[in-house]
Amino acid sequence: MKHKQNGMRIFVVIWLGQMVSLIGTAMTRFALLIWTYQQTEQATAVALLGFFSFVPYVLVSPLAGVVVDRFDRRRVMILADMGAGVMTIGLLILHQQDALQIWHLYLAQAVASFFEAFQVPAYTAVTSSLVDKSQYGRINGMRSTASAAADIIAPLSAGLVVTLIGIGGVMIVDVATFGVAMLALLLVRLPRADKSSAAETGEPFWQELSGGLRFITARRGLVGLLITYVGINLFAALTYFAILPPMILARSGGSELALASVQGMLGGAALVGGLVMSVWGGPRRKIHGALGFTAVSFLFGDFLFGVGRSLPVWLVAAAVSSFFIPLLLGSYRAIWQVKVPLAMQGRVFAVQGALQTAMMPLGYLVAGPLADRWLEPAMLPGSALANSLGWLVGTGPGAGMGLMFVATAVLGSLMSLSGYLLPDVREVETRLPDYDLLGEAV
Questions:
Q1: Does residue 414 belong to any structural domain of this protein?
Q2: How far apart are CA 238 and CA 157, in angstroms?
Q3: Which one of 80, 214, 215, 325 is at 20 to 30 Å from 268 when CA atoms are compared?
Q4: To 5 degrees, how large is the angle CA 20–CA 26–CA 28?
């Protein structure tokens, strides 16, 4: 890979634009999440938002990966941001006409997921082409810092904007932030990516479509690592992503302040973790960050969320769980970025993203009914399950969801540590050559 003297400067410009866009998107999601729960008071309705945000991503990603490798990655990112912005404008129009319904939000999440399938692998591949591989850990830390900043700023900003000018105002801000992201991309000149597409190699489109999958399946270490993260993401979707907001609202009497405080702490701890990763770059052996830090986040964060019954305990849980997320994600991404040739990163990262999140829609789909129809009623005072497990998670509203968090604390940490049992995964960094040692071979 050629050293790009201005690579870091270019990355920072793109990164700042994407961070602004993330803040706007997070503001809209927070405002609409609260609106959804207020309309239904059901965990299922909130969990379905997550379900519809992943299904198109999983289905479209293989095709998106080919597009990312065939065409200008900057243009792919611009068009993806533009599409997401148009979707938000559609929601804004419906809201202003007092016609917004829950199913509109599900459709909007699906549309946003479609465009995200193109944006995510393009962003990651652009990152890889701009900086030296020794900086991948730090760059990924910066990306996590941007996400954390959005988590901190969005709840408070969304609450303020909703109070002043309503949900429509939040969506207007969101559309403006998409414009900032696109402007940042238009201001920079990216290095021309090396291509291995059909346009230059004569490879048939359908073979190219499966190229990412063939690359992964030929390397047992990457397969094992990917399977481990399939399980990790499933358990994360069951609780952390799907039912954390309704659990906090249920156990706090519907307090939006309590939820905003927890969301803010999640963002604050992740911001600190992202800054640490940006400076440190992660452990020398990134596999310890990808597996070990994930186990710690599950074991302590999810457990404290499950047994906690007050805001102070939830804040500690948020801090413990979220601090390690930038460290584990940065380490995990760095392993893949170092092992995958630059010309194939669009296809490989698209397939990787689709497969590792393939079980998350199932987690979202199961989480809501499991909470609403079984565990929540089972943990009401006087029920058999409440009598046997009430000492651990309490009883009443939110206790059933708390029990789910205790389960994922155990299962998620065991899934993370199981990767160490496979030598190909445990030693993936030494057993697989880096892409530059392959001479960019496919």
A1: yes
A2: 28
A3: 80
A4: 110
CA–CA distance, 292 with 106 (Å, rounded to integer): 35
Residue located via tokens 């479609």:
114
CATH code, domain with 167: 1.20.1250.20
Q: What is the mean pLDDT of each run of 10 residues along the chain (442 residues)?
A: 65 90 86 78 75 84 85 88 89 85 87 89 86 83 85 78 78 88 87 53 64 91 96 93 90 86 87 90 93 96 95 96 93 92 85 87 87 93 90 94 96 96 95 73 44
In a domain, 77, yes or no: yes
**Total structural domains within the chain:** 1
In the prediction, which pLDDT does 131 show? 81
